[in-house]
Write a structure and sequence with these properties.
Distance between the termini: 37 Å
Strand content: 15-25%
Radius of gyration: 31 Å
Shape: globular
Structural class: alpha+beta
Number of helices: 24
Largest sheet: 5 strands, parallel
């Protein structure tokens, strides 16, 4: 039982366990979930073909054995349809349906050195197959019988946009294709596709992949229950067949004259069938029915968003077509007595607002200005379309198209023991870019609380406390613990792990501000902190000196250039007003920082969970609009909080006037100058989940601003969860922004908890104990040099050119691009 929706992702690791819905297959061919002793009544027979169904005797024939049943559910799925094209049985012709198919295809390509392929079918699976062939290094042709790609989901306009993006990737699309035959070479393997279409040239290919639709696998049922002459077991709204004790779900079931080839209707069918089976077992009546399914889908095909929802018809249709950006949007509206309602739509190239549009179409709400929905979300600004966050249709994970309803259903079905790891594994939410992880965890917490379960927010298996709880215990310890072993002995158990060791190291750094690489603390750090640099692709590191407020001296610029030339580093100005030098070897880092330190550069902490930068405009120093000296204040702020370790990275900015050139309102803390002082904003965030900062105080002087920032940062450090930015931390304070801000003001300004004195003293301790981490390494080579050796057992150094492949780009070198999906994921030589 593996997730065939993600079949193509098998190429990334080529491990069936990564697609499994039932745990590992390594020790149990049926999957560890089914093999578990916790389910003694669940028997799975693998490799045992069911050959017959006898509804009178209530038995299923499996080889020479008859298996009896009270109720039977047919979930036999479907098989790939291969048109009767001459040559379809030649070696080199494959279907794209199972992991076995993919393994055979990869082995064949490798064995015969195939350089070109053709995919028969331009539907969802056909396009995925084409991308996989392309990523395997083959020149790929897509052959579609219909005049457009994805003819069930999009129209001609959507096709034009999609084809443009497909061809940009180097694939070739041939629609209205009438395939005549697959022909063999002298060795009997497929080598050519010929066409009946007049004027079409033959295609020389070494592999053909057929993805031309599916047929229900109903052989076992044909002599037992009613089946359609063209395939499919006929079922009622309760998913019962013509025999009341036999059910059918998924792609074998024909409901209302339709076979559903999508996973969501299959899940819905399974739920209805399960309801009736359980009700019958308990002697009760089940009321649930399957009345068809919403076929709305959002997919990312070949890197392109493709979505359709609702009805592709209405009284009026509005179209947005941008051929430059390959974007096509078509929305259908129906006229009612109250006004226009959204009936459905087609989105290609930009489907960021799919979840909101889908929810709006289902709600039947009147749309005051239909045309306002037509432009892409990024062009009309955030907030143009608001949808209830609790709506089950709201998409949470864009990478894998997982909705809030999907998550709620899974959590409710799995029960009180549900963990984030299980959600990630089974629904794939959070397994892509990871940006939805905070939202997924919030939904998990809410659903578990609904069940009355205790929400486990422990740091890890070795500490039965959340991060804030552990911080509180360490703060209150009279022993003043300063090592991981001491903390573990007092408050944990076991040996620790890759989660708790860096987390405790960060807590101790925040509370005591001691050198992170000294003594046994070095071994606790994660990869970047252990090297005081960010590891980049290929295993090299980046060097980012601190440039407070963006102000830099000419001699410092000169040294940056000299260092970059000396060590052949790729140089780039960052978005935070400093210079990033990429491609440094770990063994060279101390020497590089020795050169930089001579002109006053300090660590920029780009590698740490700490303050990164305080961005500024030129303010009243140069700008005719500036009302305060934003550069001076930004330098003061950055020098005050540099090196302050926190649960996650922090960013800040100071704008010299309300024109807001430094973008202070989207930072963890930011200041905007007015004629009366500064407005202080906190808990803002840019990036993947933008959040406007909350106005903590207005019209305050610099001293008061610093006092409030001191307390804000220390309160955040003491109470935030592991790897939690200030924005999600702020959102946990209360249920509304107004209540959150009031709660924060009460603590920081009015001292409602009586902790401001402690917060102030902790910041004073940080200021008194600040040290430049790289200066300490340079000053004490005997103590720290071993941490930066390339090889542990020798002082010899192997040049990067001998290990990593580089390419030159605009006069600078960088690592070659990542290999395509399906190839070894490394650029080591």
């Amino acid at each position: 039982a593996y997730n065939r929706v993600r079949l193509t992702s098998w190429f990334e690791t080529r491990d069936a366990d990564d697609l499994s819905l039932v745990g590992s297959y390594k020790d149990a061919p049926q999957g560890e979930w089914y093999a578990s002793e916790e389910r003694p009544n669940c028997k799975v027979r693998v490799g045992d073909l069911a050959t017959g169904l006898d509804v009178d005797k209530k038995t299923v024939a499996c080889g020479d054995e008859l298996v009896s049943y009270d109720k039977c559910v047919l979930a036999t799925g479907s098989y790939p349809f291969v048109p009767p094209i001459p040559g379809k049985d030649l070696p080199g012709v494959f279907v794209y349906r199972t992991i076995d198919d993919l393994e055979a295809l990869v082995a064949y390509q490798k064995a015969h050195g195939v350089k070109s392929a053709a995919v028969i079918g331009g539907g969802l699976l056909g396009l995925e197959a084409a991308k996989a062939m392309h990523d395997l290094g083959m020149k790929t042709h897509i052959l579609e019988y219909a005049p457009i790609l994805m003819c069930r989901q999009i129209d001609q306009g959507g096709h034009d946009a999609l084809v443009g993006m497909v061809e940009d990737l180097g694939l070739e699309v041939h629609c209205d294709a009438r395939t005549k035959a697959f022909e063999a070479d002298a060795d009997g393997r497929v080598s050519r596709v010929t066409f009946e279409t007049e004027g079409w040239d033959d295609l020389d290919v070494g592999i053909v992949v057929v993805s031309a639709g599916i047929r229900p696998r109903d052989e076992v049922a044909r002599d037992a229950v009613e089946c359609h002459e063209r395939g499919g077991v006929v079922v009622s709204d309760t998913l019962q067949t013509s025999d009341k004790d036999v059910y059918a779900v998924g792609e074998v079931a024909l409901h209302g004259g339709m076979i559903y080839g999508l996973v969501a209707p299959g899940y819905a069918m399974a739920e209805v069938a399960a309801d009736h089976l359980v009700a019958d077992l308990l002697g009760e009546e089940a009321s649930s029915t399957f009345e068809g399914a919403d076929l709305s889908t959002k997919l990312k095909l070949l890197g392109c968003d493709v979505a359709n929802f609702g009805e592709a018809s209405g009284d009026e249709a509005l179209v947005w077509e941008d051929k430059l950006s390959r974007t096509y949007r078509k929305l259908f509206f129906s006229k009612t007595d109250e006004g226009w309602v959204l009936a459905g739509g087609i989105l290609v190239g930009d489907a960021d607002d799919y979840a909101e549009l889908l929810a709006l179409s289902k709600s039947g709400s009147v749309v005051e200005e239909p045309a306002s929905l037509l432009t892409p979300l990024k062009m009309r600004g955030a907030g143009a379309l608001e949808v209830d966050d609790s709506d089950p249709a709201k998409q949470i994970c864009s990478c894998n198209a997982v909705s809030r309803g999907d998550l709620e259903t899974f959590i409710q079905a799995t029960g009180e023991e549900t963990t984030y790891a299980e959600i990630k594994k089974c629904t794939k939410a959070g397994s892509g870019c990871g940006g939805c992880e905070p939202d997924v965890k919030k939904i998990l917490k809410v659903e578990l609380e609904k069940m009355g379960a205790t929400v486990n927010n422990n740091l890890c298996a070795h500490f039965d406390y959340s991060r804030p709880e552990l911080v509180a215990k360490i703060r209150l310890d009279e022993q003043n613990f300063k090592s991981f072993d001491e903390v573990l002995a007092a408050h944990g158990h076991g040996d620790g792990c890759e989660i708790c060791k860096p987390a405790v190291a960060s807590i101790l750094a925040s509370l005591h501000n001691e050198k992170v690489l000294e003594g046994d603390r070095a071994a606790l750090q994660d990869t970047n902190d252990r090297s005081l640099a960010n590891m980049q692709r290929g295993g090299s590191y980046s060097v980012v000196p601190r440039v407070p407020g963006g102000e830099i001296l000419p001699e410092q610029l000169i040294v940056l250039g000299e260092v970059a030339k000396k060590y052949d580093l790729y140089s780039k100005i960052t978005g935070a007003q400093r210079v990033d030098l990429f491609g440094a070897a770990k063994a060279d880092l101390p020497s590089i920082w020795a050169d930089l330190g001579k002109v006053g550069f300090e660590s920029g902490h780009a590698y740490g969970k700490a303050l990164r930068t305080v961005k500024s405009c030129v303010g009243s120093s140069w700008c005719r609009y500036g009302v305060q000296n934003s550069v001076d204040f930004a330098i003061t702020v950055e020098n005050r909080y540099k090196g302050l370790r926190s649960p996650h990275k922090m960013k800040s900015a100071v704008s010299g006037c309300t024109r807001e050139c430094a973008e202070a309102q989207c930072k963890d803390f930011g200041m905007i100058a007015t004629e009366h002082g500064y407005d202080l904003y906190v808990a803002g965030n840019g990036g993947m989940n933008p959040r406007h900062g909350a106005l903590l105080a207005s019209g305050i002087d610099e001293a008061t601003t610093l006092k409030y920032i001191d307390r804000f940062l220390m309160y955040y450090i003491l109470t935030a969860e592991r790897l939690e930015r200030t924005a999600p931390w702020f959102e946990r304070l209360a249920s509304t922004d107004e209540a959150r801000l009031k709660a924060l003001q009460d603590v920081i300004i009015d001292d409602s908890l009586g902790i401001c004195d402690e917060l102030d003293k902790r910041m004073e301790h940080h200021l008194a104990t600040y040290h430049d981490e790289w200066a300490e390494v340079v000053k004490n080579p005997d103590k720290f040099a071993h941490l930066f050796k390339q090889f542990a057992n020798t002082d010899e150094v192997q040049p990067a050119d001998e290990m990593i492949e580089f390419v030159e780009t605009r006069g600078q070198r960088r690592p070659v691009d990542w290999p395509a999906d399906g190839e070894a994921q490394t650029n080591w030589r």
